[in-house]
Design brief:
Elements lengths: L5 E7 L3 H12 L4 E5 L6 H6 L1 H19 L15 H26 L2 E4 L1 E4 L4 E6 L2 E12 L3 E3 L12 E2 L1 H4 L8 E5 L3 H12 L3 E5 L11 H13 L3 E3 L2 E9 L2 E8 L4 E6 L1 E4 L3 E3 L6 H4 L22 E3 L10 H15 L13 E3 L4 E6 L2 H6 L4 E7 L4 H6 L5 E7 L5 E8 L2 H13 L4 H5 L10 H10 L7
Parallel strand pairs: 1-2, 1-6, 2-3, 6-17, 8-15, 9-10, 9-15, 10-11
Antiparallel strand pairs: 4-5, 5-6, 7-16, 12-13, 13-14, 18-19, 19-22, 20-21, 21-22
Helix pairs in contact: 1-4, 1-9, 3-4, 3-6
The chain binds flavin-adenine dinucleotide.
Flavin-adenine dinucleotide (FAD) binds next to α1, β2, α2, α3 and β4.
Length: 468
């Protein structure tokens, strides 16, 4: 009988949480295996999430800009047309390059990879159902990083043709004439923006009263106005009750907050109301791994589950479903296993919505500070007053810094504007280092840069902004 291979760590799932954890564990000297059911490594993020989304967002933004945004720069163009097939192929190439890169990193680090569906098989044994049958590996520790899958709504079952999830919407073969997006969170707004730029009439229906629920209200409102100017339509305080596929499209029944019912017909419907933990089929119950009522694996502060030697990180546990959150947890978790003091500061995890303009945030919103009864001082600075934004013609948006009224410590930073996704890194680092608004305000920022808007917003906390 073949010997059961034994590893210090077996990671289930090669998404950003799992593959980064596997690499870090190998760096720390552990023998590591990673089991992935998909043919490629990278998980949701690389294959059907962040990477294909931002590739399409970038391509569609170039398309739109070339069609209508170059004349003011004195650049004349001829007729601009879309080759969606080429755009999709480019996106697929970006994904393939990055997923192959992980395979190379695994080889270099000595991480053993198994293709197959993993299941806890008693103690810390893991059974892997692969293309060539089932095998069992023995692990001193198991890390579950099995991620998440899209939520399906009652009355809106995915047929993956007309009623679709985000994965389907990343690969439409043609531009839908009209698209109903259910949910005005990051994924709905990003994919809605892509298809709107490529020519679709997009309506976003959202149950709450604004875009990007949970993010800073003032800047969310700013983003909403900008998206409306771009041609996205919104129905807020409205629920999509069900949808019927027929003829050339989908008839969706909507109910507004006041009870009014209406019907909207569109070529396709994208349901983007969030994701749920992918914890089914892992043999959790038999292994003694407890989940909460939402199916997320319960962990303690060091990502230990209720079963000895079994850990969990990323989308399959509670917290924001973000790639970098999964990565940080993966690193800190395996460091803990190795006896190193790994740690994640959850209050400094940034979040970004890759619309145009982008919306990036870290830390407390004004509303959260009020709810917690924390007295704050707020500094704001509009990109319209930032020289670099003017040179770029990208003046929509603002930076908002929220500081503790007593200590001046930065509690939150929110940015709607050009390159907000990059600008937020300075804010997150400042918060990680325990900076006060005054520290950012007194740090020399190169001129002319967008980052000067953050410095000015930090100055504005003390009423000392200079360029407004
Ligand atoms: C359209 C879209 C856009 C997004 N954009 C962003 C963004 O811009 N920024 C951001 O931070 N986040 C974004 N996200 C979220 C991000 O993709 C996830 O938070 C992240 O991928 C979670 O990482 P993870 O490692 O926990 O899980 P996943 O990436 O979901 O990986 C889990 C892996 O486990 C594998 N697996 C599951 N069960 C088993 C099993 N039993 N055996 C073997 N393998 C298994 C799966 O096949 C998968 O490869 C986006 C998501 C979507 C859908």
């Amino acid at each position: 009988m073949a010997e059961t291979p034994t590893f210090d760590l077996v990671v289930i799932g090669a998404g950003p949480g799992g593959y980064i954890a596997a690499l870090r564990a190998a760096q720390l000297g552990m023998s590591v295996a990673c089991v992935e059911k998909d043919a490629a490594f990278g998980g949701t993020c690389l294959i059907v999430g962040c990477i294909p989304s931002t590739a399409l967002l970038h391509s569609s933004e170039i398309f739109e800009r070339t069609r209508s945004g170059l004349a003011e720069h004195g650049i004349r163009t001829g007729e601009v047309s879309l080759d969606l097939d080429v755009m999709m192929k480019r996106k697929n190439r970006v994904v393939t390059t990055l997923t192959r890169g992980i395979a190379g990193l695994f080889r270099k680090a000595g991480v053993v990879s198994f293709r197959g569906i993993a299941r806890l098989a008693g103690g810390t044994q893991v059974a892997i159902a692969g293309p060539d049958g089932e095998r069992v590996v023995e692990a001193k520790n198991v890390l579950i990083a099995s991620g998440s899958v899209p939520i399906e709504l009652p009355g809106l079952a995915f047929d993956h043709e007309r009623i679709v999830d985000s994965t389907d919407a990343l690969g439409f073969a043609s531009v839908p004439e009209s698209l109903l997006v259910v949910g005005a969170g990051a994924i709905g707004l990003e994919l809605g923006s892509v298809w709107r730029r490529l020519g679709s009439a997009v309506t976003v229906v959202e149950l709450t009263e604004g875009v990007t629920p949970g993010m800073d209200r003032e800047l969310s409102d700013f983003l909403r106005k900008s998206l409306v100017k771009q041609g996205l339509s919104f129905l807020f305080g409205t629920r999509v009750e069900n949808a019927e596929v027929g003829g050339l499209g989908v008839r969706s029944s909507l109910r507004a907050g006041d009870g009014t019912q209406s019907v909207l017909e569109t070529e396709r419907v994208l349901v983007a109301v969030g994701r749920r933990a992918s914890s089914a089929g892992l043999g959790l119950e038999a292994a003694g791994v407890a989940c909460d009522e939402r199916g997320q694996i319960r962990v303690d502060a060091h990502w230990r589950t209720s079963a000895a030697g079994i850990y969990a990180i990323g989308d399959v546990i509670a917290g924001p479903m973000l790639a970098h959150k999964a990565e940080e947890e993966g690193v800190a978790c395996v460091e803990r296993i190795a006896g190193v003091a790994g740690h994640v500061r959850y209050d400094t995890i940034p979040a970004v919505v890759y619309t145009h303009p982008e919306f990036a945030a870290v830390g407390l919103t004004e509303e959260q500070a009020a709810l917690r009864g924390v007295p704050v001082r707020i500094g704001r600075f509009p990109f319209a007053a930032n020289a670099r934004a003017r040179t770029m013609g990208e003046i929509d948006g603002a930076v908002k810094v929220i500081a503790d009224a007593a200590s001046d410590l930065v509690l939150g930073v929110h940015v709607v504007g050009p390159n907000a996704s990059d600008l937020i890194a300075e804010a997150a680092t400042a918060m990680e280092l325990g900076a006060a608004a005054e520290d950012i305000a007194r740090s020399c920022h190169a001129h002319p840069t967008l980052a000067e808007a953050l410095k000015e917003a930090a100055l504005a906390v003390a009423g000392r902004a200079l360029n407004v």
